[in-house]
Amino acid sequence: MTSFDPDGGAWESSGTKLYSLDSATNQLTRLDPVTGVKSTEPLRDGSLDFVSDDGYLLGQYDSAKDAFYSEYVQNGVVYRRDYALDNPPCALDATAIIFCQDKTLADGSRTLTITSVPPKGGAATVLGTVPMVGSRPDINVTPSSVVLLAWDYATTATVYRFSRSGGAVSKVTVPTPDYPVWAANDTATLVNSPLPHLITGTTVSSVSVPSGVALGYIAAGPSGFKVWGSGVGVSGLYAVSTTGAVGPRVASPGVSVGPTFLHLNAGRLWGADQRQDAVRLGAAPETVWSRALTSPVGSESVFPAKAAFWYGFDFATAGRTYLETGLGSPAPDVYDVTFFDGQTKTYTAHGSGIIAASGPYVGLLNYGAGPSTYTIRRADGALLATLPDGSSSVALFGSRLLYSYSGKLYIRDLSAATSATNPKSLGMWSDTAGAVSMWGDRLAYFDGASAIKVRDARTGTVTGSLTAQPDTLKVDDGIVVFSEGSTLKAWNGVSGSAPVVITTDSDPFAWDVEGAKVAWVGNSDQQARVGSLPATLNAGKSKPRLLGLMGLPSVFAPNVSGQSTTWSPQIDLTKNLSSWSLVIKNSAGTAVRTLTGGTTTNASIRSAIWDGKSGAGVLQPNGSYTWTLTGVASDGSGSPVGVDGTSVIAGSIRMATQAPSAAMTNAALASSVSATTTAPVTWKAVSPAPGTTTSFEVQARVVTVSSTGTRTYGAWTAFSSGTAASKTYVATAGSVRQFRVRAKDNFGRIGSWSAVSSMLWPTDDRSLTKSGAWADVTSSSSWAGTVRRSATSGAALSSSAVWTSGISVIGMKAANSGRLKVYVDGSLKATVDLYSASTVYRQTLWSAPVTYGKHTVKVVLSPVSTARAYAYVDAIGFSR
């Protein structure tokens, strides 16, 4: 068993003293912050409203009269004071109960009337009426004044001072961007939010704070104030006079109270306590700290960011910390949740409260103008899920999300896409009530009546039940730990087995369990303790499980500056490893690199870094690679496994090390893809790196031939740019265009120009010389809108001599078509069968290269039969 005193806690001001309430034992403790003297007394039943230095006020209900009343208790003697609902008590000192009557006027504005009544009975004195802003304001009572501070929840606070003997009310406004910490005596008011201001009469002056000191809680005395200041080597009480002078540090007694929150994570205990700004509970940030679970416990390490007041520190998990870090929007009691990896802030969720976190996954309750909603985010802020309105009982274990909705419990894998089975319903549950805790394949919850239930998170099957009335519970590595009042118990989750009592002196909310370790704050001495669960529970024996992965780009380019040149995964686990190995293989299954590391910190790996090279330093090519993680658990429980407890931890990497290439894919003949001279031109990326996006630059040029056969290539001109892989081009029949393309990836790398690709717009049939009977037929499906038809044997079409390097004959095929003889320069080159069961247009009937020169072409109809007597000639193409 290890214990220590974190030297901090949650205290409020009762005047010149501080007080704290132990709800478990119903004990009220007062502390003199200067002398360190404490006194304790039991509280009567009732709702504690206010505490003075020598008495306290309880709220009570008289059922016979159906009315509320107050009881003032001093030295065990009880005095009753009735009041109206619109005029309740709002402050207390030894000589008066202060009542505040909040009224809404006809114009919608509000007023607040302050009345003083002797606590042991006597006539009431109305001290004054002032405008009302915000919610019910804070009240300080001094021997001769009642001081009221009203904050607008935005930028300013108004301080009113009422004389207890009647008379004028003074009014002063001070800047307060945060919830103000303040106190008043008979002559001055000190307001700290976040910089201190001193109000004397109607004069506001700044207070000069010693270097390195942050002022926190304030206690007022007759001649000045005692203010708790914090800072490295300078923490303690400081005296502030009624003129604003800050004296030297006063010896502090070192208030001994426990943290408001505890969390165990990978061999460290985390906590948060109000060690510096605690007088106004709700006004002060909490100091967040951690200690190594060595024997004796390690020295305190203070986290650089503070948490919001009271349970503002929520989760430390696998190297990540999630804090409620202050008042946010839209309401003053709503927080911002800040995400940290190590000590680096990664994201801030505004207007949210944290409800669950596991590795890189965090569940938030989001406040807004409408109904509150649950969202699940990744540690970098990425929104992964928004739960349906009315969801509850949200729990996380790594990428496994559990929630209830409309009487059913659902489980979802956040690392996979949503589908018909993700999320998966575990069936109708009528006994889920309140929080649900999940670890691995087990979930535990209180049924709201008389039992803790344990179920299999995969199927919903009940695996254990225990009669209990828990205040809080948590399941970890198969063990259920729960609090009943100040008693903390551990149970193995099996029906019929008895729970083990860990302690009978625990704060029911300030405790945690991880593996075989359990930590709690003692009620009696406010010390944090860390102990081991009994060996009979066999706790903490599971292998390290994967909670999540981050920092995995869809693709990375190690040889491109200006972006991440390394692949560096963030791996979150449930336990520390004493050593680990991450093997990277190429698509052929050959290991190209092995990354290794020693003992992990906070059950996380942040040092696995790959530069895209082999072990010999050779940059690897474009491609998809796989990786596998193995290791040894520090506690000897085995090698790390997936979130399901059995699978291998593995993944893939897409790497781009080479500039992209591209190729033209256009048709050689425009007639093949269009019936008009407006034809589509196409191109593509060639073997792009996996995961990259590609854009293209395409150029075009005209090819012409002179009467003497000289070919001229025009200048390249821009044709297309962007991600499109096609575009239409308009040319004239009988012309040739050439195209080329190059590609650019999303890393800015530009490939080489592709090979030049030609595209021919054929010469229309109407430009050919007829011999025999030919009919010019209009056809929208034919090249340039016409086709020549003949059924006369020997009918011919011929071209004049053309400079060319290739010839193509284009026409139609049909069931009534015969044959066509093709002659080049008077020599028969082919006899083409034109038959097709169905009619097809713009077919390349014959094509062949020729030696570049001047050539003539003639096509002659050769009928097969009377049923197949026709020929349809559309165009002739001449390549350049």
Helix and strand layout, with pairings?
Blueprint: E1 2-4, E2 12-13, E3 18-22, E4 27-31, E5 38-42, E6 47-51, E7 56-62, E8 67-74, E9 77-82, E10 89-92, E11 97-104, E12 110-117, E13 125-131, E14 138-141, E15 145-151, E16 156-163, E17 170-175, E18 181-184, E19 189-192, E20 196-200, E21 203-206, E22 214-221, E23 224-230, E24 236-241, E25 246-250, E26 261-265, E27 268-273, E28 287-292, E29 301-302, E30 313-317, E31 320-327, E32 335-341, E33 344-358, E34 361-366, E35 373-378, E36 383-386, E37 392-397, E38 400-405, E39 408-413, E40 424-428, E41 436-439, E42 442-446, E43 451-456, E44 462-467, E45 472-476, E46 479-484, E47 487-491, E48 500-503, E49 511-514, E50 517-521, E51 528-532, E52 546-550, E53 570-573, E54 577-585, E55 591-597, E56 604-605, E57 623-633, E58 649-655, E59 661-664, E60 678-686, E61 694-705, E62 711-713, E63 717-722, E64 726-730, E65 735-745, E66 757-761, E67 763-764, E68 769-771, E69 775-778, E70 786-790, E71 796-798, E72 802-813, E73 819-824, E74 827-833, E75 840-855, E76 857-862, E77 871-879
Antiparallel strand pairs: 1-51, 2-3, 3-4, 4-5, 6-7, 7-8, 8-9, 10-11, 11-12, 12-13, 14-15, 15-16, 16-17, 18-19, 19-20, 20-21, 22-23, 23-24, 24-25, 26-27, 27-28, 28-29, 30-31, 31-32, 32-33, 33-34, 34-35, 35-36, 37-38, 38-39, 39-40, 41-42, 42-43, 43-44, 45-46, 46-47, 47-48, 49-50, 50-51, 52-53, ...
